[in-house]
Amino acid sequence: ATERSNPTGRAPILVASNRGPVSFSIEVDGSLTPRRGGGGLVSGLSAIDDPSSVWVCAALGDADRAAVRRSPEGRLDLGGFDVGGQAVRMLDIDPDTFNRAYNGIANSSLWFVHHLLYDTPFSPLFDERFHRAWESYGAYNAAFAEALAAEAAPGAAVLVQDYHLSLTPALLREMRPDLRIGHFSHTPWAPPEYYRMLPDDVAEAVLAGILGADRAAFLTLRWAFAFADCCEAVLGATVDRDALTVTLSGRTTRLGVHSLGADADFLRSRSHRPDVDARLAALRESVGSSADGTPRRTVVRVDRTELSKNIVRGLLAYRHLLRTRPEWHDRVVHIAFAYPSRHDLPEYREYTAAVERIAQEINDEFGTERWRPLILHVNDDFPRSLAAYRLADVALVNPIRDGMNLVAKEVPVVSDAGCALVLSREAGAHAELADDALVVNPYDIVATADALYRGLNMPAGERADRTKRLADAATVLSPQQWFLDQLRALD
Ligand code: G6P
């Protein structure tokens, strides 16, 4: 209430996202250590060098909450720690409300609908618990809208990120009609017939919430059109597909498309630091050489252990390759990095167990005393991921559906000697990389195995040429440019 009676702040540019640019861990002595987050948004934000801009995010755990409580007015004291120049305001939202909003709605319902992850004979079940979580999602979105309203200078630009915050644009517009509001979806958008599985009130509120922005932006035209299709089918909005606008009750929201590229400068320098060199040497050692002394080839994947990343089918495709192409026995190793993610959700815990089980089965079926056909690492290690990017002969990026997929763009940039890219046609990156990737239907294990085989057999010269073109296509839009373009489009 105090915030609303003093409605204008000083920030000319604001960003809002669930996960912020920094998170904390508690040390044994009780002190808090900040850690910079990864991802395109954090890199993009380094483009604004304006200390009066503010990034509003949520405290994600106990350490973050402790950091907020030690900071005046929720503004984090980062002790000179660099998150791209702007101040960070972390919201200390009641843990139960946060968990219901984040796990109950954002990560299970909205993420699942946009990535087509429902297992329809059993899920979803929109029961009382879901509707209670939906109320919490409203409260969580309102907390963001209030904080943004309090921080924003008159006429400020506010960039609201992702499916966690789909109600915030409309709530914020009501409090502060002077602001220029953008919403950006980092996910795919579901087609209307799938989207309409959500309860009607939820389906409507999510769309109307985003339409509260002046501009609703997506990573590809495909997702922007899917959003427009849902606005038409669910809300009866008027869509102009040439002008890229959606009009509802006399208000028009512009649609935007901003593809996100790999951060070439950062990746190229980071991937040649000594810690990455050391990990590359260790990886080479564990991959080893075949009986005739030739270094083994590698198929590499790097993902969060995320249902939409399709890791299980990727492993089954590799198994099919080994079953049908025995000439590759002892000559190839699959390096699969599957980092922990969203373990509060039982589906993710089960999926992680399935990944580990199938990986074990593959090693049991084909492994020999001298050859371990599959190396699975489940602990996040960024320099080791970069080392695997440099080493990969074939990269496997086979998501069921993905807003963009930056691994597909990062590997060609970092690769030492060229890497064949097996790429799902359902990844947003497909729109830019299709010409030089080996494109697959992610559900088809046999076709994926065949693409792996083609990648392994691709002549070195062709691999290097394709990798060069992939790297060019992957770096057209730097994260910094991606961010500045969104800001400019709000003018
Ligand atoms: C996707 C989403 C991001 C999210 C990230 C990690 O990339 O688009 O908004 O931050 O996954 O997921 P998490 O639940 O750990 O934040």
Automatic annotation (TrEMBL):
Q: List the Pfam families.
A: Glyco_transf_20
Signal peptide boundaries: none
The record's CDD domains line, in alphabetical order, gives: GT20_TPS (cd03788)
Q: Which SUPFAM superfamilies match?
A: UDP-Glycosyltransferase/glycogen phosphorylase
Task: Give the matching InterPro entries.
Answer: Glyco_trans_20
Top-level taxon of origin = Bacteria
> Which family, according to UniProt?
Belongs to the glycosyltransferase 20 family.
Q: What is this protein called?
A: Trehalose-6-phosphate synthase
Instruction: Please name the taxonomic classification of the source.
Output: Bacteria, Bacillati, Actinomycetota, Actinomycetes, Kitasatosporales
